[in-house]
Amino acid sequence: MKEHKIPASITLAQGLLESGAGMSTLARKSNNHFGIKCGSNWNGRTVRHDDDARNECFRAYRNPRDSYEDHSAFLKRGARYAFLFKLKITDYKGWARGLKKAGYATDPSYANRLITIIEDYDLYKYDRKGGWSSSKSEPTVLNPHQVYIANGIAYIVARDGDTFKSLAKEFDIRWKKLVKYNDLQRDYTLMSGDIIYLKEKKKRASKPYTVYIVKDGDSMHTISQKFAIRLKNLYKMNRKDGDYIPEVGDRLRLR
């Protein structure tokens, strides 16, 4: 948000809507969360997918972060979207309606759908982070974390030096809640690459994730984090107690 001057709520809502909360074929197989097609200037990886026409060319990314970065750059490069960058960073309604006006989507209800997602998930709160808040007392976050979505829940990827308290300050959440949301202990030391959810996870995974085959290095906790499922519910669904240690090849229910 800070680098591209696009409301974080808009980016998150578009990602949720375009990718079906990360469940679309493009998102799952190619990390393309916004349905961006190849275009004449794309030199990266590609994938073929049926859309308006059969076997169309879409961009493929190494990870979701690259997809989010490219989407922001896509909007910033587009001349037809230039007027949007004159809006306040907190004006998500103006951005939603402006995207529809600029022809980003043909769906006549596109703007209203974005606004509904933003308000249902309180995504507008993220527009006030990273130094964009009008509050003089709120600290400026010089290098804010990118926010992603899994199973409809916002999360970030921890970096070296992160603590529960530093993340709590950045996202205006009590640090003890972050610990609880992520099924961790208060004395746990965050490590680079840890998935940290900003809201409580769900009781089950979203479709089509119904069964998971355990891989080397998996634990019940890492699986619960991967699919944004509460740890206690993962145990309960599979009729396992706290002493259970998953083994490679085990089949675990996710919903």
From TrEMBL:
Pfam family, any one: LysM
GO molecular function terms attached to this record: amidase activity
LysM domain span: 210-254
Keywords: Antimicrobial, Bacteriolytic enzyme, Hydrolase
Signal peptide per UniProt: none
GO biological-process terms attached to the record: defense response to bacterium; killing of cells of another organism
Protein name: Peptidoglycan hydrolase
Organism, as annotated: Bacteroides fragilis str. 3988T(B)14
Lineage, uppermost ranks: Bacteria, Pseudomonadati, Bacteroidota, Bacteroidia, Bacteroidales
